[in-house]
Each structure stands twice: as structure tokens, then as C-alpha cells.
Amino acid sequence: MRFDSINFVFVCGNSSLWEHDSLWSSSKPGLTQCFKRTILNWLPTIFLWFFCFFEFLRIARVKNKTIKWNRHNFICVILSLAYIFLNDLQFGRILYKSEDSITPVDLHVPLANVASLTLIIFFFYYHRLLGIHTSAVIWIYCFLQTITTFLITCQTWIDTQNNSTFEFIIFNFQFGVILSLLIVISFADGPIINVEYLATNEQVDVQSKHLIPENEVSFLNQLTFWWFNSLVFLGRKRETTIDDLWDLPDDSKTENLHKSFEADVSKAKRGSKTNINLVLILLKKFWGYFVLLSIFQFLIDILSLFSPLFIKLLINFIEKKASVPIWHGFMIAGAMFIVSCIENLINAQDSYLHDTIGEKVFAIICASIFRKSLYLGAKAKKKVSSGKIVNLMTSDSQKFYSTMFSLNTLWSIPVRIICSLLILYSELGYSAFVAIFIVIGTSLANRIISKRYKRLRQEHSKINDKRIESVYEILNSIRIIKFYAWEESFIKKTNKLRKEEMELSRKMTYNDSLFEFVWTFSSSMVSVGTFAIYVLVQGGILTAQKTFVSLSYLSTLKSDLGYFFYEIMSLRKNSESMKRINEFLNLDELDSYVTRYVSEYDISVENADFKWSKKRKNKQNFLEKSQDDSDEDLEDLSDGSDDSSDDLDDSENEEESVSPFYTEPDLKNINIHVKPGSFVAIVGSVGSGKSSLLSAILGEMEKVSGLVNINGKSKIAYVSQQAWIQNATIRDNILFENPFNKTRYEEIISVCALEPDLAYLPKGDKTEIGEKGINLSGGQKQRISLARACYSDADIFIMDDPLSAVDAHVSKHLFNRVLNSESGILRDKTRVLVTNKLDILSNVDYIYVLNNGRTNEAGTYQELVNSRGDFYNLVKQFTFTSDGQKSDECSQVINKEISLVHNEGEITATEHKEVDKDEDTKTGRVKWPVYLEYFRMISFFWIAVIVISKLFSSCSSLISDIWLSKWSIDHLSSDFSPNSVKMRLAVYAGLGIAQGLLAISDSLVIFNGSLNLAIKLHQNLLFGILRAPIAFFDRTSTGTIITLFSGDLQRADSSLLQSTLMFFDSLVNALSYFIVIFVNIPLFIFVFIPICLLYWYIQRIHSSLALQLERIYSSAKSPIYSHFSETLNGLNTIQTYGATDRFIKKFSEKYDRKSVHSIARSISKIWLHMRLNFCSHLITLFVALFVVLKRESLDSGVVGLILTYALNVTRSFSQLVRYPSYIESNAIGFERLLSYSKLESEADWYKGKIEPEDSWPEKGSIKFDRYETRYTPKNEPVLKGITAFIKAKEKIGIVGRTGAGKSTITLSLFRLLEPSSGAIYIDNYNISDLPLHFLRSRLAIIPQDPVLFAGTLRFNLDPFSQNSDNDIWSALSLVYLKDYFTKIGEDLDYNIDKDGANLSVGQKQLLCLARALLKKPKILILDEATAAIDLETDNLIQKTIRSQFKDCTILTIAHRLHTILDSDRVMVLDNGQIVEFDVPKILLDNKESVFYSLAKDDKLI
After folding, report:
1. Fewest CB atoms within 10 A around its CB: which of 76, 461, 595, 1264?
2. Could you give all domains of the chain from N- to C-terminal order, each with its CATH number?
3. Interval 562-586: pLDDT, tens
4. Dihedral over Cα of 1004, 1009, 1011, 1014: its sign
């Protein structure tokens, strides 16, 4: 329908609103007076008065801030007044006219403008007063007013006859003033000055907070992210650091967000009996932002549908040739460019709002999970493991976040589909619906394929998890694996898992190939089927307009339908993550059954029963285990594994094995009363419930019955058996956020025997402690933990066997200076001590003896001895009498005995930090040799095949498009016939089939090409890591290595090749697009080159910043998960000290740093894509302009093709810029893999200078010949030229103070440390000349910490299957475990959990003894093997060793000297030298000997 003329008599009088001939059909278009004075004037005015409501709301919210009068706001007011003045003149001029010539619109226009500018002046005033820098409403109004005024002014230039001189002057001045005002408000107003500060006459530091500048720049600046330019150019000049980024505003800080969220949760819980729904609360909290995101999404969807319509208009314009004015074409091209730019701007704002609000939502989720994990109740703790909690924060929270922000797709995609269908129906009629049926059919087919893929993916994830667990287990037990020479077995096990993983990857690739074929083939079939019905059934003619418009919308329809099905499946899948998080946040919190009444007792437990969980216990397995110190590694957990879903793991610190038979409480009928200031000891055998009792007192178990009371508001300090150490300085660990008191601090350092350690360390107490205290010995960690408790100045001290990790001298010092009721610093405090050291019990006030979870006996030491019960038997059997003398010798020698701890195998904190620093701060680009090595590992043959396959795919697509272009103009040919249509259709369908087959070829070729790489890379990495010397594992965190085997390996396996091929695809597509354009529009190259240079310049200045931000962001994530892991590890300690709120705050601070980096990274990407898209829109604009200029020589088919390609340039160019950064990011991972595959290795496993007979060593003699070794070339020697000869079958005890070099003897014998000079000879062979595995396999060791692996009992004892079942059962019988495993009923296939979690410490140590029995060695090393177990298990081990290893040479390193008193000789080490080496009796007879002093401290004499 065409309106030749539209009149608006009531408003405009005789002037028409619209004259078609004078405007649309004229080569010089002219607007009517009515149109100019109504539409052009009303448009900005209506906008201002409609949206001014939001400006009033904004003014009402902002308070207490002001901006000084300055040049900017002064000019704004002056220009507004000038515009009002000009409109007043115009109004006055109208009044002087004859009344007959005045129309209502003549009066409305100036009055409306005056009212609008008056309102704007009002806003300017309050903006200045309230510190508002800019206004979107005012800027858009001025922009619209400038455009409309310009159009009116242009008419005064064109149509001079119908405009008076006065109108010419007025309109031109109005345009100049409003343009000036637009330019001025395009810049922000001045800095903020806080009124509250001014009132106190204090100087305001506006730079005190380095806030994000977004809120202090103009609307135009915000719209284009111009404010980010400064950071981009800074990144170009130098490396960007964390300090260059901004602070978060208060409303975006995690702590504030979480507090607000908690308030919302509390409100939701009020009056509600159901669990809270996290999604509903978050939607309610951020509903305004979600509405705005929906508006943005709607606008983007609508604007994205315009491009094909513009192509249609341009094709129509070309077909009409010279019959329409050329300015029509320019207008269409301009409109297409403007719409694309508006879509680009809205898209950028949508992405920014999505990322910033998403970061807030993510922060709330993570903070809520963290806070909940600190307050979980005893029952709830049993339902979730640390691994599951970390997975909730990493994997599940990410899916939760993705799901929330994909809710818009549920309505936006259907809207786009409906709009596309309506347009297709208008073009092709009912044949448009054929596309729907084809797409739905192929989507259903793909869904069937996807189900199989999902199953394969789940299997693949499980195998991948097993492989990572295997690697993690290897790293945690690397010393034992090297001691036993088991590397080959674990390499075989891990490589087998890798091969299974690759086999599943092959099946997944076949599945993907089928998926790609169906999807690619359906893309062609959608258009083939639709066009076939249209031309063959409907009898329509396929013109260029219909072809390319329909093709665009068919493509949109297909992708939208596919994406919609994908989103539905993702929502279903991710809803499980939402469910898991909701369930976790609704778990019961800590139910503090511990009362706080004022009482005569500091601790009261009356008639109480406790249990760990509702899970039932196996009575046979009711044996206590020490606390588990091997948590899930965070890097492993955060690498994307989604295996957290439904595991209800056993408590990580649970003390009993789980089995389905026993239902009694773990602790029964407990009665304990601890008086203020008393010293109470709790003793008992393994599994008696000692540690559980402490947990019950602290409120961490489930109370079945009874009463637990802590006196009043008494502060509690807790020292766990496995010392919990933070990744902080030694001082920070001791202070634990308490105020620093120098006098008290130095006293605590002294009594906890830490002075010599601090003197030795390079930075003293400012030395940074590594991950899990990696750079400290066990004794040091325990003393720091004890110092923390002492410094807390608590009233009650609960200690779980803190003396077990230190030597006799240190133990005596700590007892006398800290615990003793007469001389200890805690003498006036209440002390509850769990201990296995029976020799100190005579010095405590009261003793409780536990047996099978009951307080079997209680009383003073003398009372229990006189009662002749279980306690008396223990004392009689395992202790020696003491003369009761208290020697001062310990205080005199304590400095000497602990000053050399560094030599005992630990690395210094300085070294540890330097290694981490090197890992984190690699800079620069990946070098070309790395890429060449990558391609070489794939093989250049496969690279060539892959490239050729990709070229064929791209060529088939290009030929298909050209064929369709020619088909679209067939109807214009004189020899056009129905047969030619069928031929065109058949060829087009054939090309579609070819594209589908080539898609299959691509997938198969790429996988087979990368398969060799994946297997080689994993083998080389695993071999390189396991061949590394032991010092490498000391200085490299487990998380770093796990990342190599997970994230980095995955990136090198597939991501790097995929991103490279995607870049190649984009490059080939872009080249094909431009070749088609250049062939038809050769002059375009003169525009193309400058735009390409602009592209290159933008990408270049951005790349440096992007790389640095990526690295900063990666480094910012690790501290969050490290803090989370650290907190979970020390949860008992944190809760006992009442530090949960402080740790939540610390988490928030760490998360805030990550949020800043995440937002900066997001803005960086938005900034880049926005500018690159603008360049792409310029290309589209110039192609359209050249098409308009060449309309006489171009046919409509070619125009449709080149315009479609011009629109596709945006996507291709965006990928060309984006993928190089992806390639480099993935190549960094490959570079790391290469470097770790080529680590410095230890000696050859299988070849040596000499190869003895298999029977070696036949005797077992050992000779040290001036032997010297050190841990690193820079360190001082640990063993200093020691010389000694140990005869065959001799039993040698090795003793010495901490740091003397005892454990270094073990490392040297197994060549975990190589000599710096001298040699060790075994049966006259220099062990340095032997093959490494040959040497290690001939020695046996029972280590200090028993290590078991996840797997069968048989694998743990004999991983190479070298022994028969009878041999294994015989070994188990000799270590008193045969009956235990026989009763379980699974024989040698009994499954041992990770770290032997389903066995007690004693049982694990006995299994280690069984390993040694199976090896039948001639030399056995006992490295403090009984230091951490009870005396009963110790007795069993000693009994077996004496009977079964009587023909072996035995070297025993021991804390407890009674275990080596029956040795043939004792070697006493001090400062890395042998100071005494003789028969124990001779050494004990010499009261001047070091051994005598050690024995005296241990109360053996």
C-alpha cells in the first residue's frame, strides 16, 4: 500500500504531513513543513518526557555528593539557555504573523523545546549538586534533537524559496547550539567532592580509592568503553600488573553481596517450612538487571533480523536499475550500517551487564558455599567430602551461573524462530514450513546420537578421573614409589588408563563424525527441501531476492532450533548442579550441643553417647585412624571433573571404618570432669576413640544422649594431631590475627623451641611457609601449631598428641616449658592431652583410659597403677622406671638439636617461593620452535592431510553458494526451462551431500592425526615427571603437576589443534569471501587495505593487554581455591578458635581480587569485539556503497552473494582475531608440557656402569667411604664425609637429634640423593655404578608414614605380581593380618581405599612390613616406622622384625630409643657427621656420650 499524500489538517492546517512524489520519487527529496514541525520536533521531546521519570528516580537515590561549578557545567547551562532564547525568538516571530497563517503546530514546537530545555537545566543543577557526571537520557535527547534539527536545517539550504531569512538564521543557530551542547555533554562533568568531608574541613583524597572509572565518565564514553583505552595503551607500553586494575565498588564486593544475600535468605526462611530456593532468591534480588538483560536480548534479536531485509531492498534496488533515485541505495546502505552499529553497541552493553551481574551472582554462590562449609553440622559433614564441596564451588557453581543467564534463551529463541518463519512464509509461502520439519527431524536424530555421546562422555570422564587420581596418588607417594622402584608398575597402570581414555575418544570421534554429517547435511537439505517444494510443487520462481533472503532466514531458523534444543538439554543437565547447590545450602548447620553454663568444671561430659553419623559401623573394623592429611588437590578438583554429583563420602577425619553391620554409638557412656587449671591426659590403644572424644568435646560429633558443657565464656585452643599450617609467614601462623605483643611472642617462641629455626631461616619469622607446610618438618609444624595455641591465651587447651612428631629432647623441652604444671607456660591453664607417651603420665593431674569407645578407667597416675587394671599392664610392659630426676640438660642443648632441621630434607621457604614465582610469571609469546615441535609430534603427513581435507570442505561450500547465485538469475535467461531447475536442484543437493561427507572426513582425519600426539605427550610427560629427582617434587606443588596432566594435557590434546583449525577455517572462508567481492568489485581493494590495517592495529595494541590479563586472572583464581582447601583442612582448628567469620572475610577479599581481574578481562574482550565488529560493519557499508555505484553492471544474483559474504565477514574477521589468542593460550600449555617432559632426570633406571648378578647382595654389608651429599648444589652438605662399615646381618640403630642427618642416610642408600663426594659400597659394589632400579629393588624400607594405594590388597603388596597367593598370605600371617582379611571375605581382592582410608594407622604400617617380607631383602631400613603408632602395634612390628629379618642387615631410625636398645651397634649422628658408633651398652656406660643424654631424656636410664 502506498500513501501518495497524508494530511494532518487539525495540527498543520493546509500543509501535508507526507508528499510521496516530493520526497521518495524525487532526486532531491524534500520534507513538508508539517513533517518537520511535528515528527522531527516531537520525536526527541516525547523521548525526553517519557524517560525523565528514570532521571528523577536516579536523582532521588544519590545523596551527599556534589560537583563544583566548573567550565563544563557552566557551558552546559549557558548553551541550554541559548537554545531556549532562540526558541523564544521563534515563538515571538510566530506571534507577529497574521493569525490566519498561524497553525497549532507553529506554537507547539518552540514551547515544547523551551519546556524540554528548562527540564534539562533542572537536571543539570541537581546533577552537579548530587555528583552525577552524566546522563543517558539527556545525551540521547540531545543526539535526537541534533539529528532532527540538522534535517530541518538541510531543508532550509535546499528549499530556500519556502523559508524566510529569519527562519534560515534561526534554524542554523539552533543546530549550532544543540550540536555544541551534544559535544559538551559527550564529556563527563568534574570530580566528586564529598559533602560530609567538607563539613569536617578535612582534605578529600579523591584518589584514595582506585575505583573503576566507568561511573565517572560520560554516557558516550560508557557506551563505547572509551574509558578502557587508557589500560589498553598502558598494556601496550609495559606489562600490566594487578596494581593497574581497579578496586571494586562497595556494592560489588563479595562481603557486602553475601551479607545482603544472607538477609534475603533469612527473610525467605521466615514463616516458610520448605527449603530455600537459591534461584528464586537471586532472581528476586537482581530482577531489575534481568529485566534489562531481557530488553537488550529482545532488541538484539529484532535488530539481527534486519540485515537480510536490507539485502532484499538492495537487490530490489539493483533490479530496478535507473528507474529509482540513487539516493535510495545510499539510504539503504546507510540504514544497514546504522542498524548494525546499534546492534553492536547494544550487544556490548548486554555482554558487559551479563558479565558484571554474573560475577556478582557467582560471588554470592561461592561465598555461600564457603560459609556453609564452615558451619556444617555433624550429620551434614558426613554427607559431603571436601572434594564434593570444592566441586560445588568450581564445576557446579559455574553451571549454576550459566543456567541462570541462559534463561533468556527460553523465550528469545522462540521469538526469533517465529519472526523468521513469518518472513519466510511471506517470501516462499507454505514451503517455509518444510524447513521446520527437516530441522526438527535432524534435531531428533542428533538427539539420539547425543545420547550415545553422553554415555561415552560419562565413561570418558570416569576414566579421565581415574587417570588423574592415579597421577595424584603417584605424586603423593612418590618417595615410596621410588624407594620400592615401582615407577614402571605405575607408569603401566596410568598409561593403560590413558589408552582406555583414547579408545573412548575414538568412539566419541566416530559419534561426532556422524553428528557432523547429519548437521552439515541437514543445513543443505533445509534449503534444498524448501526450494524444491517452492519451485516444483508451488511452481514459484527462485529470484535473487527470494534466494538470499530465504537462505539467511533458513540459516537463522536452523541454528536457532538447534541452539534451542541444545539449551533445553543443557538446562536439564545443569539443573542437577542447581539442585546439588540448593541441597548443600539447605543442609543442617552446626547444632552446638555444647552448653556454656558457668560451672565448677571447665569441661563436663556426663552420661554422653556420641556417633559420627547415621552410617553403620563394622564391629571388626572398629579401629581408630589418625587424621587424614591427604585432601583432594584443588587443581585436580577444579579442572572440570564433574564427578561430584551423588557421592556421600565418609567423613574425611572419621576415625572408624565404615561397614554395614554395627549400629552402636562410637563413644558410649562418657563421663569426664576437668577442673579449671588441671592437666588431664587421655590414653588408650588404637581405635579406642581418643581423637573422637576430643571431637565430641569440641561439638563436632553427633550427640546421641548426655550433656557436654564448657565453663562460661572460656576461650578454647586446639592442637590437632596432624598440625594445620597456613600458607603464610611463621609469624602470621603463630599470631593467627591476634595483636602482636613482642614480649609475649618472644617468650612463646622460646618455650616452643622455635628460636634456632627462626635464626636459621633467611627471613626469620617472616619466612613464607609453603603449601601444606611443605618447607617445614613435621616437628616444626607441630611446634608452630603449639605456639599458636599458646599465643592465643586461651583458658582451655585441647591437644591431640602433639609430642608424637618430635624427638625425645624436643619432647622433653616442650613438656617442661609448655605443659608441665610446675614449670610450663600453661601451668595455670586447663589442659586436656591425648598421648601415647606413657612416660609423662606421672606428671599429669588426672588420667582417663579409653577402650572401645568407653572410659574404661579414670584416676590419678598412682590410683591407676594401684588398681592393677589395663593401664597398669601397659605401664608395666612398655615403660622403664625412672629416677625422677629432672635434668636441665635439655634447655642447654635444645638449640643445638633443632638448628639443623633444614638438612633433614626440607627445602627452604625462599627456594619454594622462587620456584612458584618462576611458574607464575612466565611472560612473552610462545616461540615458533614450540609450534614446530607440536606439528612434528602430530607428523607433517597428517598435518598435510588435515589441511587438504579442510580446503576441500571450504571449496565445496563456496561452490555451493556460487551455484545458488547462478540459479537465482536463471529465470532472466531466454533458455530458462523446468528441466534446468531440476538440474540446478540436483547439483545443489549433491553439493550438500558432499559437504556432509567431507565433515565426516574432517573429524576422522583430525582425530587420527592427533591420536599419536595425545599418546606420546602423555607418555613423555609421565616418564619425564617420574624420572625427575626427588628434589623436584619437594619444590613443585602437587597442584602444578596435576594441572599438567589435566588442563594442559587436554588443551594440547585437542584444544590447540581445534583452535588452529578453526583459525584456518576462518582464514580460508574470509579469503573466499573477499575473492568473490574483489572479482566483482575490484575498486573495493582500496578500501579493504586501510580497514585491514585498522583491524591489525586494534588487534595488536590489544593483544599484549589480553595476554597479561589472562595470566593475572589465572593467578588470581589459585589463591581462592588454595584458601578454600586450607580452610577445609583446618576446619576443626578454625572453629575451635572462633575464627570462622575472619576466614569468610579473607575469602571475600581473595574473591574480590579475582572479580576485579575477571571483570577487566571481560571488558577487554568486549572492547576488542566492539571495535572489530565496527570495522566489519565498515566493510559491509563500503561493499553496499560500491554495489549502489555499480548497479548498472552487476546482476542481482552476484549482489545477493557478495552482500551475504560481506555480512559474514563480521564473523570470520572476529574469529581471525580471536583464535590466535586461543591458539597462544593453548600453546602455553603445550610449552609447559614440553618443558616438564624434559626435566633433569635421575640416573638411568636400567643401565649402569656395572651390572651385578641377580643374587646381589648376597651378604648385605654396607660401607660409607668419606660420603658427602647435599640437597641442592647451593646448599651446605647434609652428610659431611662420613665413614663407617656395617657388617652383614648387623642390626644398626641410627639416632640423633632433629636435623642430624638420619633420614638422609636412607635417601642416600636408595640414591634419592646422589653423592657430592665419596661413595657407598654394598657388598663391595659402589651403588653409584649400579642401575638405579636394580639397586632400589634389592633394598627394603618400612617408612615413617605408611603409604597405601587405591586398589586391591594384592596390588598394594605385589604390584608386579611376582609372588604367589601363598607367599602373600604367609606374609600377612606373619604381620598378624591374615585373620582380619580372611574374615572380611574378599581375600586378596579386598579393595583398599585411597590412602588406606578404610584401615587404621597400625594396620597400614603392618602392611608395609608385609611388603618388606615379600621382598626378602638382605638390607632393611626402618625409617622411624613406629613413631606415630601406639605401643601395642609397635610391639607386633618389633616382634616380627626380630624373627623374620634375623639374617638381614637392619638399619633402624627411631624416635623411641627402646626400639634400638637391642641393636648390635648404634650410630649417633650430629650435624651430618657420625659422632658415636658403638655397642649400646658401651655408649650408655659413657655418661659423657650423646647417646647417654638421649637415653636419659627418654627415661631409659
Report:
1. 595
2. 1-34 (no CATH), 38-224 (no CATH), 252-324+336-532+541-583+938-1237 (1.20.1560.10), 1254-1338+1450-1501 (3.40.50.300)
3. 677 777 777 777 777 788 888 888 8
4. negative
DSSP bridge pairs for 708? 594, 605
What is the C-alpha to C-alpha distance for residues 1310 and 1332, in angstroms, rounded to an integer?
8
* Cα distance between residue 44 and residue 839, in whole Å: 92
What is the crossing angle of helices 432-476 and 409-428, to 10°?
150
In a 10 Å sphere around its CB, with 0-12 CB exposed, 13-18 middle and 19+ buried, how is residue 154 labelled? middle
Helix 165-185 with 71-95: angle, nearest 10 deg: 160
Beta strands in 801-936 (DSSP E): 830-834, 846-851, 854-859
Q: Please state, for a pLDDT cut of 70, what percent of the chain lies above it.
A: 85
Task: Show the cell assigned to 1036.
Answer: 613443585
Indicate the range of 213-222, 773-782, 1007-1016 predicted with least confidence. Answer: 773-782
**DSSP designation for 204:** P
pLDDT in tens, 975-1028: 656 667 777 778 878 887 887 787 777 777 777 777 778 888 888 888 888 888
**Alpha carbons 1159 and 1181: distance in angstroms, whole number:** 32
Work out the pLDDT band at 905, boundaries 50, 70, 90.
very low
Q: Which residues contact 893 (CB under 8 A, 6 or more apart)?
A: 809, 1297, 1493
DSSP conformation class of 680: E
CA distance 1246 to 1256: 15
Closest-CA residue to 363 (of 1120, 1396, 1236, 1218): 1120
DSSP annotation string for 1245-1296: SS--S----TT--SS--EEEEEEEE-SSTTSPPSEEEEEEEE-TT-EEEEEE
In three-state secondary structure terms, 1377 is coil
Q: ω before 1257 within 30° of 0 (cis)?
A: yes
User: Could you tell me where the beta strands, DSSP code E, fall in 736-890?
Assistant: 796-800, 830-834, 846-851, 854-859
Nearest to 813 by CA among 798, 821, 803: 803
Report the relative pairing of strands 1351-1352 and 1391-1392 from DSSP bridges: antiparallel
The pLDDT of 803-808, averaged and rounded, is 75
Residue 1136 in contact with residue 306, Cβ under 8 Å? Answer: no
The cell 586501510 sits on which residue?
Answer: 1090
Mean pLDDT value across residues 68-72:
86
Residue 376 is given by DSSP the state B
Q: Tell me the average pLDDT of the chain.
A: 79
- Contact partners, residue 341, CB within 8 Å, separation at least 6: 1174, 1177
Give the H/E segment covering residue 300: helix 287-304
β-sheet with 679-684: strand ranges across: 716-719, 796-800, 830-834, 679-684, 846-851, 854-859
What span, in angstroms and rounded, lies between the C-alpha atoms of 684 and 664? 19
> Which residue is it, cell 598428641?
801
Asked if residue 684 lies in contact with residue 841, where contact means CB atoms within 8 angstroms, the answer is no
CA distances 272 to 277, 283, 977, 1209, Å, are 11, 18, 74, 55
Contacts 24+ apart (CB under 8 A), 563-566: 563/409, 563/413, 564/409, 564/413, 564/414, 564/417, 565/443, 565/446, 565/447
Spatial distance between the Cα atoms of 21 and 1275, rounded to a whole number of angstroms: 95
Bridge partners, 1451 (sequence order): 1292, 1421
- How many CB atoms neighbour CB 1479 within 10 A? 12
